[in-house]
Amino acid sequence: MKSRKQYSPDFKKEAVKLLLTSGKSQMTLSQELGITHGLLGRWKNEFDLETSENGDLKTSAEQRIKALEKEVSHLKEQRDILKKAMGITLNH
Questions:
Q1: Counts of helices then strands in the chain (DSSP H, E)
Q2: Does residue 42 lie in a domain region?
Q3: Per-residue pLDDT tens for 75-85?
Q4: In sequence order, what are the residues at sequence separation of 6 or more whose Cβ sits closer than 8 angstroms to the Cβ of residue 32?
Q5: In total, how many domains does the chain have?
Q6: pTM of the model
Q7: Average pLDDT taken over every residue of the chain
Q8: Can you give the residue range of the structural domain that contains 33?
Q9: Three-state SS string across 49-90, please?
């Protein structure tokens, strides 16, 4: 019989943190880490339930989302400026 591989809580936390901040899919990241797709999903759910551990993870994910939203806004402004400079008008 095969014995189940045990992972440390730190490894699990770092894997979930990577999932939330790297922008990689759960499938891709689980393959890179050499674990099953379902295992990474289960760890994510476990950390979602643990508010003390999840505080850092959610904060990091929220910061990443805010930064990406800011970048999208900036890029839209640049696009609009370029469209005006080129005399291009679209019905959007």
A1: 4, 0
A2: yes
A3: 999 998 888 88
A4: 24
A5: 1
A6: 0.51
A7: 82
A8: 9-86
A9: HCHHHHHHHHHHHHHHHHHHHHHHHHHHHHHHHHHHHHCCCC
